[in-house]
Every structure is written in C-alpha cells, then in structure tokens.
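Friendly challenge for the regulars: who can give me the structure tokens for this chain first? No prize, just bragging rights.
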Amino acid sequence: MPTIMITGAAGFIGGHVAREAERRGGLSLRLMSHRRPPAGAAGADPTTAGPDPATAGPGAGFGHGPGPGAVVPGHRTVRADLSDPGSLRGVCEGADVLLHCASQIGGTPEANEAVNARGTAALMAEARRAGVSRVVYLSTASVYGRGSFRAARPEDLIRNPGSPTSGSRAHAEDAVLAAGGVVLRPHLVLGDGDRWVVPGLARILRALPGTVEGWAARTSVITAHDLARLLLGAGLAPAGDLTASVYHAAHPVPVTVRTLLGAVAAVAGPAADPAAEDLTAVRARELLAARGIAAQGLDMLTSDHWFDSDPVWRDLRCTPGPDFEAAFKELAEGYRRALLDI
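First reply, four minutes later:
Bragging rights claimed.
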C-alpha cells in the first residue's frame, strides 16, 4: 500500500486531493497541515491557532482561500510549518509519494519567500533524505506573468513572475525540479472551497456597466476535482509514462471569457446588463479603480490565457471531466450560496 504525503491537506486543492485519494482506496495517507488539521483526520487539534500558509491553493491572478478541509478519517496528520524548517524534520519518513499542495498566497514578500521558496527547498531536502520516490508540486500559470497565451506549451514559455507570490513559487518549482520532481501549472481553478476566483469575477461584473472588448478572450479552467485527479495521477504514474517534468493542468478545451462570466453572472445575482455597453479596457480599468478593485483580474480577462494541457491527460491516461458548462452547472448552487455576501 503506497504512502502518500499531502501538504496543505486542509486547504482548497489539498483537501480535494485527500478526498480523491480516499475515494480511490488502497493508499495510506499522511496529511500535513500547519494550523487547521483536515476534518476527521487522526490527531486533529482544533485548538491550534495562528496563520496557516498550508491552507492556500494555487494562485492564478485571483488566488484561492481556505477550503473546507478533507474528510479522511483514520489517516495520519502531521503538523509542520513550511516557514520553520526545523518542524519539517522527519515529516517524509516512510512516504513513497509527496504531493506538495501548500503555498503562501499573498501577504508580505518575506512570508512568500519563507514558505514557498525556502520552505519548499527544506521540504525537498527532507524528501531526498527519506527516499521519497516521486514529488509533485502544485504551482501556477501565474509564474509566466502578464501576456497573451494561445495553446501555449511550457517548453515554449519563459517564466516572468510579476508578484512576490508567483516569484517565490517559481523558486519553489526550481527546488522541486532539482530534486527530480514534477510540476503542474493550472490557471483558473473552480470548485468547492474557491474563495477568490468566482467571487473576484462577480465583483468585476457588478462594477462594470457592460462587456469589455466583447469578452472575446479564451482562458483555461479546471475543476478542483479534476486537478486533484491529475495531481494524484502524476504521483502514482509509472516513471516511463511521464514525458515531461512540467505540465499545464487544465481542461483541454478553453472557455471564452464571455461564457465564463455568463455562468458567473447567473449565480452572482443582479448585475449590469451586459448588452448596455461594450467598454474599452482603459475605461474599464478606470471604473474598477473607482471601486477599489485591482485591474489585474481585468487584464486576465481581456487577453487569451489558454494553456495546452493535452500532454498531462495523455501521459496519465486520464479522461478529462465534463466541459466547463456542464461542470459549472454542478457547482452553481454552492457558488450561489457562497456569493450571498459578495
């Protein structure tokens, strides 16, 4: 029975990974969390307090907040802090696979460096010491910075991170790759536990009196469930099946921003009539600034962010889940409840 170590197991994506591993069965799970142990896990201590960098999921411009935690009773919980290398001593002992889903998203540059860069480097040293056979790191397409991306492949792109978070996650990638690991880069991730992506889109919709340049750009999305399947698959795949060390992780079919925002508008409640006006990007930025909304999200919606993800599905012999419209329909009610206070 392989032992899978999951960092960030109480967070958005880490929680989905833990539940997917439990659903598959035949795996022994070790769940690492800093502050908030996964619900139902052995050794959970609800009195632990303080900031929890392990609960953040992949940031892709909008980012993600704490997720619901994983319901995985009976599996071992390991409490450790990526910003404290000493607390990592021995955490990987006995693990066959390490799925590194913990990241600091936002906060100070020092916190990002401590958790994402130095913390990941320390974790890789522990993985090597323990003889872990496979490491998979959950990164983000935001390591590329701003630009237009059309069917883009990792080998054709240059990382150009534009924030302390994405810069430190690029350093984390370097540590993982130097240790012989695998990196997955998703763009927008949707699902139970998303606290920033769809809420962020809802705020933009409500602040603008119409479309922006027709919302014609295309973007890559993936559900948290599908991303969990890919992370677990990459951790368990025979070495000969993996043709790359860096993969994009998204549904193979990109979504137009118009379709994406139409789905969000349907669950976000009253918004401006999108047919009222088609704004220029410059005018839209002015309107957002007047409402105190950063323009970064708008930049991602007015240029293509389409990342070629066919290789990861092919190499893992995994079939993508439903297309965006079908998948979002299943998530709609949960988002509708989550957006009541937005």
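DSSP finds ten helices and 15 strands in the chain. The radius of gyration is 19 Å. Your move, everyone else.
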